[in-house]
Amino acid sequence: MKKILDDNELLLIDAHCHLSAQPDELKENENIMPILKKFSKNKTNLILNVMTTTHKDHEILKNNNVFSNKHHSNIKFGVGIHPWYCYRYSLNSNMTKLNHYQNILRIDSYTEEQNTFNELIAKNIEKFPSVINLETYYNDAVISCYDFIGEVGLDFSANLLEISDILNIRNVKVSPKHQTDILKFFIEKAIYHNFVLSMHSVNARLDTYTILKEYDEAMSKCLKIVFHSYTGTIEQFEQQYLKLKHTKTFMSLSGYINLKKPLTKKMTKLIQKIDTTKILLETDVPINTDRGFDFRSDLAKSLKIIAELKNIDYVMLNKQINENYNNIFS
Ligand SMILES: [Zn+2]
Fold this sequence. Notes:
The protein is of the alpha/beta class. The protein has a single domain, classed as Metal-dependent hydrolases (TIM Barrel). Helices cover 40% and strands 18% of the residues. It has 14 helices and twelve strands. It has helices spanning 33-38, 41-44, 55-63, 97-104, 113-124, 134-137, 140-143, 161-167, 176-193, 205-218, 234-239, 265-273, 295-310, 314-329, and strands at 12-18, 46-51, 75-79, 89-90, 105-107, 132-133, 148-155, 172-174, 197-202, 223-228, 247-254, 279-282. An eight-stranded parallel sheet has the order 1-2-3-7-9-10-11-12, with helices on both faces. The longest helix has 18 residues, at 176-193. The chain is globular, with a radius of gyration of 20 Å. The two termini are 33 Å apart. 37% of the residues are buried. The chain binds zinc ion. Zinc ion (ZN) binds at residues 16, 18, 51, 151, 228, 284. The site of zinc ion has 6 residues, from strand 1.
């Protein structure tokens, strides 16, 4: 007879969570060991993939010695620049700070206003965050400290809150070209280091696919991509991503974005049709949260929603999801 498992006995895997909600929330010298201890395997029976979103997260991890400290074997760390913060990074070391920002920032407005906008940037340039050279900072030695790449991606609808505050105007965005250049930098690092990518794609589905297809055609080795909180259609996933030759694509589904009830028709269809070997679970929540968020119950809830829609046993589904994770990340 099958043993009915208590939820705490299930090994649950969060394939995409964060260190903190904002890049400047934790101090660079902050001791994050109590946070990591809280998530130890014997306390939580969880495996976590923790994303970094800016170089500040890297500084925190480095200062806490997490790369040489093997006590947290249930936590994998991902290296990345979230598209919301990619304006702080440059791939061109010859550019001045002013040129960099004028080159990559846009306002949702008429083109003739771009000149006025550039003047506004010039007037306030001292208040802008200093620009980090991506290639120098994220050299191969830094990348190789990590277990995978994430969070990276494209988000063509994101407004830059920090810059909007400095300039006192709304709807400041990063040019799609700059986002694409940064994403390409990390895709190339993933290919070189044989790393999986945990990818964000909002309002940029076609561009994401076009970039991946280009690499897919030029590549001879395998690249694995997990689309985090995938909100595209099942048709796009099957007819585009699954048709790529060397690129293996998966999706991690979150309670917050994908499985919030009532489920959309699109999401219901996606979950009913997607092959179970393609699914992972995620929370997308920062592990430093003090708002009483329960990672286990959120993941278990997501698991049960998917199992119910697919009309399968959730323990069996979890077994498959954990197998997927091991196949993808090891
Ligand atoms: Zn995320």
